[in-house]
Hints:
about 400 residues; mainly beta; Methylamine Dehydrogenase, Chain H; 2 domains; four-stranded mixed β-sheet; three-stranded antiparallel β-sheet; 1 helix; about 40% strand; globular
Amino acid sequence: MKLEHASKRYRYVQIPTVLLVTAALILMMVGCGDYPVQYDLTISSTRGGEVTSPGEGSFAYAEGTVVNLAAEAEDGYRFVGWTGNVDTVANINSATTTIIMNGNYSIAASFELRYASVLAAGSYHTVGLRADGTVVAVGRNDYGQCDVGDWSDIVQVAAGDWHTVGFKDDGAVVAIGDNLYGQCDVGDWSGIVQVAAGALHAVGLSGDGSVIAVGDDYLGQCDVGGWSDIVQVAAGDWHTVGLKDDGTVVAMGDNYLGQCHVGDWTNVVQVAAGGMHTVGLKRDGTVVAVGDNYLGQCDVGDWSDIIQVGAGGMHTVGLKHDSTVVAAGDHSHDQCDVDDWTNIVQVAAGFTHTVGLKDNGTAIAVGDNSYLQCNVEEWTDIGWGPAG
């Protein structure tokens, strides 16, 4: 009996040992097989949007996996493209595309301000950005404000009274024309994502949401150093306006006619600044305006379905969702004769003229043409610069 019990105990002890040895052998055999190779995908985005599929951060996928990518722009921004390790991205220019995992990749979705202008209208000159990053200009040129023929790699333009500003695809800024107040002293700016030009000052929006300004500061229009979380800037004659990422608006400078009374605005997605008035486009496509209304330039309360606004000397222009245009205010030079415009994708307003970009890359203009600032009919290939 004792021997039998001992034999049972021996068998009981051996069973776990046998199981362990067997499991080890199985693991060794499996280990000799081919595991699927895994690669890491790291995804990020620039200011102005997010990657919604698969999200942002680091993800692991088996080799050969096709991953769906989707990027979504915030209000006031547009998707530009995918950057980084994009060799296996199906379409780097599409917000919805795929990537094949054949290695460790790091990619980013790039966004830029939707209203970065490819058309700009100064007091008496007009500027256009070609799709290849070069610039054309017509109109008054007594300070050289139209001498932009040698500019390259430009992604946005702005026009003041007598000067022209452009920012390049590397974030640098160039300016030409009247520099009496230092409004063209932008050569040391960097990291800029949008520019604006007032009568005698220039404004730059940095990628971190801060703002810089140079030029005439007599009325405090350049006192923007404390601004933060700005996503778009606009410059009037003597005031500066900033749109914050929460849809509210700030303004500095001349407030003689209440053009800086924007503190109660909400749900705004774009701003424009005219001679002495300020215009805001709201998320629902309606428009608000404050300031000088002597000629009805602020009578925009009944506008709807607007997707972009522009502000001139004493008139306001709105681009509608159906690509038609509306205008209100000073009509002394027929600058509001835009009722028959169609297929328009962007508008700009000068002192007494209005310019529109058509969907085929050509331009149209009405209003004062005393300095040939409306002679844009021969322009072609006007459109987003290299970054777009």
